[in-house]
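Reviewers of the previous submission asked for a worked example of the structure-prediction workflow described in the proposal, so we include one complete record here. The input consisted solely of the amino acid sequence. No template or homolog information was supplied to the procedure at any stage.
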Amino acid sequence: MPRIIRDDGARLEYQIAEPVNKNLDALPFIFQHGMGGDRNQPLGYIGQLPSARLICMDARGHGDSTDILASDRCSFDAFADDVIALADQLGIARFVVGGISLGAGTALNVALRYPERVAGLVLCRPAWLEHAQAEKNAGAYSLIADLLDQLETDQALKELIDSGIYREVIADSKAAAQSLRHQVTRPRAAVNAEILRTFPTSAPSFSKEKWAGIEAPTLVVGHQHDPFHPWRIAQSYAENISGADLVEVPSKDRDAQAFAHEVNSAITEFVETFSGPAKRP
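From that input alone, the workflow returned the following structure tokens.
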């Protein structure tokens, strides 16, 4: 698997899905996974694009990449810098950047701090505004981190399922509850528990006013009925980023097949506008 080696020695694994139709004019799409996921998540959302290269990287502490080696690299700034380092290694001057949940926060950070590199922005199921996540959500992740510190995986999972926080979440959304269980059972979860403490209490940008300065065409994809990816967050980005397109898809709880199909369609259609003669400025 190809990788980049960062200045602190971190090894970050990535994967490229070549387009169906080779198009040298198509801008690459760097699409990042959510918290606790890996490159297979965005690859599963899209699979393969008609004209553009799809590039997905395991963020620090995820998938096959290096564990979180230092607390200062457990941040949106650090994850965004890793995306830029990946683009640099691949010789990509400008690209479409996007992500799911944590990956959406990373993509937003890239667009704000490296605007000259970003041709387009995709925020899929965003989970952060300009401040820390809701206390209830951050509390759920903090509980999981504590359980991972104290217990073996099976016992930590049992304690989570028996908790009041988990019972409240599963009553709202079975998909969200499954995501919490995955935070316990995913590979190397305990070693990287700092991710669950740090990101929910941070934000990709602490100024909503800065969002208005994003000039890159932007797509926001969201849905109802998910306590960790509230529809109001997607709405807020669409309202504050000039010209952003907002697409509502069915929730995974309501119709998982329709969710997958409509997310794929919305993102593919958006990214393909950056190809050939129709490429946006």
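Residues 135-196 form one domain. We consider this example representative of the routine output the project will generate in years two and three.
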